Amino acid sequence: MTTSKSCPICKKPRQDDFTPFCSQRCKDRDLAQWFGDGYTAPGEPVDPEQIARSEWDAQE
Hints:
This protein is of the alpha+beta class. It has 2 helices and 2 strands. The radius of gyration is 18 Å and the shape is elongated.
């Protein structure tokens, strides 16, 4: 069954099995964008080492 909204990648109709995408291909393309830093979240840049240190200090 399809829904009325379109796939955010290719704009084809969404499929329930792959919501919010139309296919496994578009789902995988979206995941690759996240892995390849194609998407970003707003905010200040963060140093991963600083995060690790603060989490380590919080555990002690």
